[in-house]
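Hi W.,

Here's what went into the run:
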Amino acid sequence: MFYVMLESTRSALISILAHGLRSFLTTLGIVIGVASVIAVVSLTQGMSAFIGESFSSLGSNSLTVQSYTPIAEQMRGVRARLTPEDLELIERRAEGVASITPILYGSSASQVRYAAQTTFSQIMGTTYAYREVSQSYVQLGRFIAESDNLTRRRVTVIGSKVRDDLGLPENPVNKYVELGGEWFKVIGLLETKGDFMGFSQDDIVLVPYATMRSLQGNQARTDIQIQLSLSENADVEDVTRQLTALLRNAHDLSPDEDDDFVINTAEQLMNTFDTVINMVTLVIGGIVSISLLVGGIGIMNIMLVSVTERTREIGICKAIGAKRHHILAQFLIEAILLSLLGGLIGLALGFGLGAAISSSIESFPPASIPLWAIVLALGFSGFVGILFGILPAAKAANLDPIDALRYE
Amino acid sequence: MALIRLSGISRHYEMGSQLVRALDEVDVEIERNEYVAFVGSSGSGKSTFLNILGCLERPTLGQYYLNGAHVEELDHNQLAEIRNREIGFIFQSFNLLPRANALGNVMQPLVYRRIGYRQRREMATEALRRVGLEDRMDHLPNQLSGGQRQRVAIARALVTRPAILLADEPTGNLDSRTSTEIMYLFDQLHAEGQTLILVTHEEDIARHCGRIVELKDGRIFRDRQRTEAAH
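Here's what came out:
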């Protein structure tokens, strides 16, 4: 068997090379099909890998608790809230929590000013624990300390984009900026995190939680977010269950009422993104594999022409002792080789295309091809070769020697 | 026992509603190292006869016994095996593979015998040397003259050391000088012990053989031994 394959491969290569241009045109369908599959997969996979990295930088074992009001409730003017009391409750009662921090968002993007420069940025009130929970560290100065919170100090830690937008010096520590009409002293600059899905993660202004609360005034309507990170061997599911029970109890929800809060894990968010991306990959992949099918039909067409053209040759081979399987193997392997060759060219082309597209669009993550895509592309083109090569090859193998020899 | 024995061999075709008897109950025996010419006008059935001898075509009726095998009982693959091992076929139109050079053409029958490249090359070189083409081994068929092409075909037939060599009008496409050269080669092969069977309509060619069988309308018309070669 191996011997027959080897000899067939040898003669198939000779025949493919003898008709260089025709072979190339025949396999062009496969080239285009594989190239588009690989380009699409490399782009979406690059994006997916990038999202995975970004999420792990968010803190992979962290949980976020937010209030949640269904639209129907909102229409009736009801708003669910998470309160500082909820935070205290979780701090006291929940197990498996390493650090916990409230986040109080400014009502909307607030004006930030330094000298004559102004910009709008999201202001967040939080505590020292935010640093661990969200993996945000300072590169200059210091982070918000517990004492800042207790004494409601007017200090702020800013992201690098805010510094740049405001025209602050390279080291903005000890400068004063105006936030919503009050002056704050910059005590720290966060490490640059870069863009995530087109949003800058460095456009951020942190102030002490208590300071934020006192600035907002209307204490009754305070709705906070709670971020917490899990201790080393805590189970996400378990902590989620505990929090749900605690909060449902605190909010006096009866068993038939829905939760008025949501608990998100970074992993959940990542899975959601992954699902979406995989769907996109699948749909586009499905559409372009139709072109592989068309490519396969092109190969079958040319192989049938080739069998007819070489009828006499087949007759000669049979006259000098070729068995059916020799002829079958020769034409089948020729079809598979053509198809695989197309697959290989398509692979290179598709990767080039993906890389070119991802590098020409700014902030698009670099393309990456997973091994499974390479194996799948080559496997599929080989399969197309077998599928569409078998009919012409069988036709050749079943020719009657004397008829084939007489063929003009 | 004879190398070849055919008894009651018939080959019938349907041509529309008409039944054509290309061969009609032919009985022939051929011994080892015989040099036989089958002659006859076109339509006499001589080519059909040779195709049946060469296992390219099956008889409609009759028994064909070749070198120990009952050919009529064999299946496709066994027939291919017989064509490969027992028979060397030489055609009027040479029938070389156009994209393989002389060496490749001669090596081709050995491919179906699972012989490795190195040994194949050795055997093919030897066969080409035998027909005097050792300096044309890497030429493609279209770079060779008619006589040279027929020599390549003869080398291809010889390379498998077949029991019989079958030649269908081997000089039909050649000029008279080249024909003489080819026939001289056949004579030599016969002298070395090869069994040779050829089909021709030229008397000059048939005169080389020790036995001449005349076919007419699918039947044997005359079968005579030439007592003394003319040349």
